[in-house]
Every structure is written in C-alpha cells, then in structure tokens.
Amino acid sequence: MQPSLIPQRSSGILAHITSLPSPYGIGDLGPSSHSFLEFLARAGQEYWQFLPTGPSSPVFDNSPYMNASAFAGSPLLISPDLLLAEGLVQQKSLISEPVFSEYHTDFSTVATFKSHILQEAFSNFSFYSPDFIDFKKNTAWLDDYTLFMALKKEFQDLGWFDWPVEIATRKPETMEALRLKHHELIAYYSFEQFEFFRQWQLLQTKAKKEDIKLIGDIPIYVGWDSVDVWANQEIFTLDQKSLRPTHVAGVPPDYFSKTGQRWGNPLYRWQTRDQDIEKKLTDWWIERFRSVFQMVDTARIDHFRGFESYWSIPEEEETAIHGEWLKGPGKLFFDKIFNALGPLDIIAEDLGMITPEVTVLRRSLGLPGMKVLQFAFDDNPDNPFLPHNYTHPNCVVYSGTHDNDTTVGWYLSDHLSPSQRQRIKKTANQTDDTPSIIHKDIIYLAMASIGRLTIFPLQDILGFGNDCRMNSPGTSSGNWRWRCASRFLTDSLSSWLRDETVLFGRCPKKSETE
Prior knowledge:
Layout: E1 10-14, H1 31-42, E2 47-49, H2 80-85, H3 91-95, H4 107-123, H5 130-138, H6 142-154, H7 165-168, H8 172-181, H9 183-209, E3 213-219, H10 227-231, E4 247-251, E5 261-266, H11 275-293, E6 298-302, E7 309-314, E8 324-327, H12 330-341, E9 346-348, H13 356-364, E10 369-372, E11 395-398, H14 407-412, H15 418-427, H16 438-448, E12 453-457, H17 458-462, H18 491-503
Parallel strand pairs: 1-2, 1-12, 2-3, 3-6, 6-9, 10-11, 11-12
Antiparallel strand pairs: 4-5, 4-7, 7-8
Helix pairs in contact: 6-9, 11-12
C-alpha cells in the first residue's frame, strides 16, 4: 500500500491552463500561469489542478482528452512572452496579434497566431544549444512523435491507418527514408517540444517558489489516431490487416444514457497471453507515468475503474449496448508501476458505476477517491457523497468537475427539485434560498468535511453560471473554450478564499500568518 496522498488538510483550485487570462487568446505557460500561481498562494491554496496538456486537434473540438500524444506538450500552451524574453521573436510580432476575446478561446485563430510566432522563433533558434541536444538525446518518445506530426502534415491530417501501408505498418526502411525526407519538419516539431518543456520547467520552479503543488490528469485511454497507437500497435486491440480496432472503449447503458457511451478508443490488450506483448504494454505505461510525474506532483487517473474491469464494445457496434465487462490488470499492474518508479501521488477518479471490487482495488493501493458534492443531494440519506457520511479522510472533495454544471448553474437547473434546494441550504445551515451564494455554501460544506483535500473549479470560486461551463459530455462542439478575465482574480476574492481556508485548517501552516 502507498502512503496517504495528502499528509495534512489542504485545498486547491481546478483551472485548465487554457482558461487563464492572457492577451493572446489562450492561457499559456508564461505570465498567465505564473500570475495564477501567485493568486493561489495569496488565497492560501496548496494545489493547482489542470486538464491534460497534450497537443489537441480541431477534429475533436480541441478536447484535452483526445491528444495526438500521451507524452508531448501542446504548442498552443507555449508563451509568446517567454519566447520574446529568449530573444526568439520580436516585440512587433506580439503587438500585431489579432484582437482576442477575454472570455473564450477561438482555437482556430489562436492556432494560426501561435504557428506564426513559433515559426519565427524556430528560424532564430540555435540547434547547437547543449540543452536542445540533451533534450533530443534523452526524450525517448520524441523521434516517433516528430515523424508522426510531419506525416500528419504531409497527408493533410489523414488518420495514420489510412496512410500508405508501408508507412502505416512502419516498415523499417520506409521509416528511415521518411526521417531523411522530412528532416526540416522533424526539426521544427522537436523545437516545439523543447520549448514547451523548457517553459514547463520554469513553471515548476515558480510553483515550488510559491509552495504550490501541481495536479495533472492521466486519461486511461488514448485516441486511435495518435502516435501512441501508431508506434505501439501490438499493445492495442487492432486488426493486423485493417488496422482498425476490433473492440473499443466506453461504458454501458445507465440512468443517464439508454445506449451507454461509445468512446471509440482502442482498448489495451490486457487479456493477452503473449508475455512479450504484456511486457511491452506494462513498459509503455511505466514510461507514461514516469513522463507525467516529471511534470507534476500528483496525477488524477481518469476512469480508474477501467483498471479493475472495463467495458469492451465490438468495433462494429454503433452504440455501447452490446459490450461486455472484462477484467482489467488490477493490483498487479500498479505493483509493477510502483516497483519501477517508487510511490506516486495518484487520485483515483472513481465516479460512475463503481463496484465493490473497484473500491477494494483503490483501497488496497491506498489511493484517495473523489467525492463530488453535486452528486450528494438525491434524497438518499445514505448517499456516500454527503459530507456527513464520509468515513475516511483519504478522499478529495470537489464541488464539481470540468464535466459538471457550475455550482450556480446546477442549483438553478431543472436537475434539482425545490425540496432538494431547501435540503442543500439546510445542510449548509443557511435559512434563505438565495442562489447567488450557493457556491459559497457548497465550498463551506467541502471545506468543513473530513476530506484531506478539497478542489474547486475556478468558476465555482467566482460564482459563475453555466455560460462558463467547461465541458458538456455528449456534445461534440463548443466545449473547452471558457476563459477567466484578469479583472475577476481580485484581492478581495483571494482574501475571502484564504479566510475560508484558514478557518477550516486547510491553509499551509507557514503562510497562515503571512
């Protein structure tokens, strides 16, 4: 069993990097993130949680959960200001940027602007830099990723499975010829990744200075059209001839969906009896965890239950109805991860259809699960998400997640009956039903709970409605765009949050009197 994740009561904020204030249409790794770390410190917070930071695609609405790589960083997060400080771009290039909205990200416009800036920086970059040479030498996934991106450009974003067969199946002589053919593009994509991780190291240094711990996110599955699947075809459920998945991921029908959810990601070959493939699959996951924990202090595993058992859907099925539960790799898998990497601070996302077996697995590993207060008020007095029903402090209490309504939006929605709204207010010891302070009521309940760590989406700290929601599951467009204008991150907001955090013993001890 691992040691407890959180040694003392603490608190943090969930805000994706893209949502932060910035003059360039999207939050990035530069001043916007550094300023947010300072805000967190002033507010008495100890954690910053964000969504996956990999390269997204307009094909999937720029979802951070559908990346071209599980290892690479998104070039959209690279800071123009830090490129300027390096002397790689000119001030006039930044001044002439388009007029961007403060409140949402137009990914298409941002991508065009960032591409121009990065091309300028690339033309001024020295490839003889010792740091760059060291980065290329010690980044094992870089060769496959840069070639994959060069080929995506050559084939106009066509999926790798539709490339010429000798490329799709990675014939060694073909791969070598392609690396020579696309050496300039490969150099450019290598530069992008070098700059992303150089700026990430600056962010880590700033976070350490402010005593803020970073919480990342590990989606359990990767996209079919990703370098991860292209470069590691043997560990996924792919037909060797068609290169299509034989079975895909999802969840079965439930109260929320009569047909379930068919996500479409290829599954891992957890059922294989081939020891070489089993070892390759485990080694790939070890490197994935290693990569993530070089970037963050803690990581949330999305869909943790899939490691105990997972829903396998035949690829030809249009819905998730006709699938079956198959056993996941279980505790033995995590034992191998921890033996290779040592103890890791992991939050297990254990929401949805959770069986006793999933809970046993999580507890056997000593991992905290999630308690989401928006799921607490369903008229069931034994609801495990109600704060007074918590039985152990090793849990992370959320007001909501990136997939939920904002707390104000949830309270005003038709998801709740008048009696449920009254019960929420009564639970928070409030006698009025004023919706404008419901976010403070829910934050109060979370802060007062025995859960060692509380996390609140930034929208809930601000008391914003559903027009500021980050993602609506089941919809394929219009998500991931919300941004926070700088004027909302005020001293009075940080002072109020700090007071609440101190009141419930969640403020870092050394900063309580600062």
